[in-house]
Write a structure and sequence with these properties.
26% helix; rod-shaped; alpha+beta; Ferric Hydroxamate Uptake Protein, Chain A, domain 1; three-stranded antiparallel sheet; 208 residues; single chain
Length: 208
Amino acid sequence: MEKSECPDCGKKFDASDAMKQHRNDKHLKQEVAVVKKPKLTIGKILTYGIIFLVVIVIGSVLIWALTAPSVGTGPIGSTHTHMDFKVYIEGKTIDFSQGKYQKPHINQHVHLEGGDGDLIHKHATGVTMGFFFKSLGMTFDKNCLATDTGDKYCNDGGKTLKFYANGITNDQLGNYDLKDGDKILVSYGNESEDEIKVQLASITDKAK
């Protein structure tokens, strides 16, 4: 009698039914894929933890870059003073009463509040005009004013960036240390003296 041979392991059986049963028990069942649930290992936990910490650190650095006090700036509460100000770009004012410029969205060393876009509240000594603009997402120096919308206004010969403190031209610009009762004007363009006088006259007296 011819024996039946298992095609998987070569074992021989007297009957084909016995070989089929053997193959079903020993070989075919082993080919069924076993789905295993992924295990949460210590390595994976550490990896997720590191990723989370990196995200936190990056976020903290970005916040610090926008809100950190400059060198010489005192702690919050070291003073409480107010200044009136206006910013004109080619004859048009920037509306600082918008929510994005108002407390609590900006720095606590210096800020705008109550929907008022004319009055600066200074809560720390050594706060400069440049630091104030930085708290609003802007930059301000002797050459350029860059707004939070990405627009940049720089001296180009025909149009100039001008800074006035209490009606007098001041060349400190971003380095100017804000003082109680100041009336500040930042103006960019090619305005005449008469037009500058109109802008200066538009500054409010709320600090008093």
